[in-house]
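Aim 2, interim progress: modelling of the adenosine-5'-diphosphate-bound target.
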Amino acid sequence: MASKTLFQTTMRTARSQRFSLLVLSFLANILLLASSIYMLQVFDRVLASGSLDTLIWLSVIAIFAIITYGFLEFARRKILNRTGAWVASELSPAVIKRTISARLEHGRSPAGLGDVKDVRNFLAGDAILAFLDAPWTPVFITVIWLMHPFLGMIAVAGAIMLFAIGVLHDILTRHRASTAAMQMREVNNDAQAYVENAETLAGMGMVEAVLANWKRSRAQAEADGSQAEETSSVLYNLSRSLRLALQIAILGTGAALVLRAELTAGGMIAASIILARALSPVERAISAWKAFGSYRLASGRLERLFRMTADDQPQVSLPKPEGKLEVTDLRYFSPETKAPIIRSVSMKLAPGTLCGVLGPSGSGKSSLCRLLVGAWRPNFGEVRLDGASLSDWNSTERGKFIGYLPQQTELFHGTIAQNIARMGEVDDAAVLAAARKAGAHGMILALEHGYETEVGNFADQLSGGQKQRIGLARALYKDPSLVVLDEPNSNLDGTGELALQQALVKMRKAGQTVVVVSHVPTLLRHMDKIAVIQDGTVAAFGNRDDIMRDMMAKGRHVTAKSASQAAE
Ligand code: ADP
Ligand code: MG
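Predicted structure of the complex, ligand included:
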């Protein structure tokens, strides 16, 4: 566990910018003093001596200092922006990948892209600048104090009051603002769900009712949010007035000191300029601290995500398996409730076997499919393909030899050809072969753009059956050794079903091992073996004819029993 996660190494690289940032900040803050020194010199030296030469030289130097300051400030921001963007681009794909694994293995993920955004915002934002400038506040206040202790006292009092207002602001608004933000997010998610389920809402006239509910929750979120904003604006104005008052206080006190000859006019002006610089990090402190807080939380969550999901093992290239499937004492518990979903399933299938899976809904057929293809990692037992446990393979490597058609076919954003080619490099010949085998070729050609039709992202107009046939072609792409089809006929019409039957026959001939969840007799007719799943276990497994005979007998028994019960 001592090894560094990708998150840690990324953050370490990001932190290596620290030194250059510190140097730039040091120089920038020194140069910030330039304008006050300029004032000091102009008032005390030029006005006293009347030397135009001195004025010109001073001005040239001051302008040079200010321009240099501009460049330094620009460089600081650029480093921060670049670091933030780099960290986000490094972490985002890794986080998506880890989120998928965490979701599969633990039911949910502790972190997501929102956390990457928080980390990025902190690294690239004003918060870091405030932290970098903060050490200069005491330096500037000391400079003022050295000019005159009275002025120094005003500066200290001002810093304390501004900080107090910031703390007050945080206390008064933090809770409200965060609940409001959370509620707003929920409200927006709801609205998104309504749009996605437009057909259901429109079809049953639910739009008005749903909107009435939605308006209520939105109004609540809005009320909390605007109250927090009101408090914010009151305190913001208070701190702005305080800053103006401090300027007047320091100038007024300065003038009084000038009259008493304890300070020069230049010193008075310079002190007021330095005061503004000194207080700026104080004002930004609270918001910087908050950004730091969310950064800390986000990086904690990301750290947990990277710790709980393993790095992919180095890829061992395995030869294409023949398709010998062995399942031993497979068990899977719900990641959330720990309730058993699959309890001790064992079975063996020789290459080229077609196995039908039957069972009531909720018995665990789909869960078994997910375990067979390695989408879920079993809590106990294993699935072996040609003797190698699925969990020992790198998932990309393994996936090439496996075809899977889930119960709900989802296509991804891209063309049909890309989807069939599993979003990787499109091998045209293999795409065509897979589509033909799945009986989808004619249907795809009939579309206006054929294989180049864009699908996914709610943009497509494909029917459930069309999607399922493309999904089947995707499962058959490049003739995988093991094919698992979860209710592949649920959306198919007569021709689709016929195509599926033909595909099954071809797969057996090609020696592919096929597991099909289906209750349709015309499909079952093609099976060699049948597994009956009940309550997460295999209630019966064997040759098709034997199982079918047993089931018929039981079926008659059950029918007879219910008939006699009905008669009572
Ligand atoms: P079938 O496909 O036979 O209808 P499933 O395999 O979909 O059944 O579901 C079997 C049981 O597992 C059900 O009780 C279901 O609630 C539960 N289940 C399915 N998916 C999950 C999941 N991701 N997390 C927790 N429980 C699940
Ligand atoms: Mg199912």
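The mean pLDDT is 88. The longest helix spans residues 52-106.
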